[in-house]
Amino acid sequence: QQKTGKKGFVFGVNQQKAKVIVTSFDLLERIHDVIDQIPCVEKIVYLQYDFQKTQQTPKFPEHVKLIPFDQLEEMGRKTLIKIPDKLPSVDQISVIMYTSGTTGIPKAVMFTNKQLISAVLCLASNVIEIADQGPRHRYASFLPLAHSLGFTFEWFLFCGGVSIGYSSPYTLTDTSPGNPAGQLGDLKLLQPTTLVSVPLILDRIVKEIYLKLSARSPILPPLFTYLMQYKTRWTNRGYRTPILDRIVCRRVQEQFGGKLEFIICGGAALNQKTEEIIRAALNVKVMTGYGLTETTGGVTGKTLDDMSFGTAGAPMEGALIRLVDWKEGGYSFDDKPNPRGEVVIGGENVAQGYYQLEDETKAVFQTDSNGIRWLYSGDIGEMLPNGLLKII
């Protein structure tokens, strides 16, 4: 529901004729509100905190069975499950993930096992150093798993043995709206080394930094901006600023756990000022990129050591990018100084299509004579001389 809204949730459950829903205790009320619109549902498995076990659950119709997750675990311990002789194939559909549905109903994108593996390898080509030292890293997960970047990145982390703590955008910091006064934010509690975020969350973090500075003195925000610009200039030249890091940046870092090293950002273009402040104040490496649900997450990305701004990076391992003319919009591969056009993405991480939407699938997905699957994204891009993609 967080991604597609109530109507999208009802549509998706009915489209797939889902018999089981796995959710959390706090979302039971929302499901109860629409249960009469999803008659296919027979069981609801829900996770709950200890303090919620004394709270009353909504009364569902008799044909819907509520199962607490700890009860499900106990059932599993008492039941011997025979491993099937026929294991899943690489071409089997393993996930159906819905787009946000900016126009009309949300589309259900079909992922195969091969696509998920390709998506993990794609990410690994740019951020392998996180998995290489997996046991020492900790990841704070607050993007919904219905977000393709958050979903595939967690698969990547599993491969490296990185520990994961689950959070929420509403409880990240001490002053987040979901935290009562005096409650520590999740970032302070988890002390993560790695985050995956969308630009909106990073914008909020920067806003919170400036609000705290303003509360102390009106002179601090402009002074802080000057110091971060100073640090950015010198780090871009290959120098470090140890005194500034120790006196100023360390205090900022402590507000967000004190151990952050990497931030991966996708979902939209990241404001340059926000990226500069995040990099400098938190002393982290930031990787931005580009991808869609239809490509199982990211397909281009900057390396963690790339200090440039304003691009979506280069194609990652296994991803193919080409530009095609969009004459109606005035964009052409022959444009000067750089080629421009609609971004077309190919490779094994491109989805099979939209579930039960054959016409929509044919409109944007194509397979060429070499068997390569291509997606016509509808986004306009510019290819820079250094091989980096810029989304216009």
UniProtKB/TrEMBL annotation:
One Gene Ontology cellular component: lipid droplet
GO BP annotation list: long-chain fatty-acyl-CoA metabolic process; neuron differentiation
Enzyme class name: ligase
Catalytic activity: a long-chain fatty acid + ATP + CoA = a long-chain fatty acyl-CoA + AMP + diphosphate
The entry's keywords: ATP-binding, Fatty acid metabolism, Ligase, Lipid metabolism, Nucleotide-binding
GO molecular-function terms, A-Z: ATP binding; palmitoyl-CoA ligase activity
Family affiliation: Belongs to the ATP-dependent AMP-binding enzyme family.
Protein name from the UniProt record: long-chain-fatty-acid--CoA ligase
Species for this entry: Euroglyphus maynei
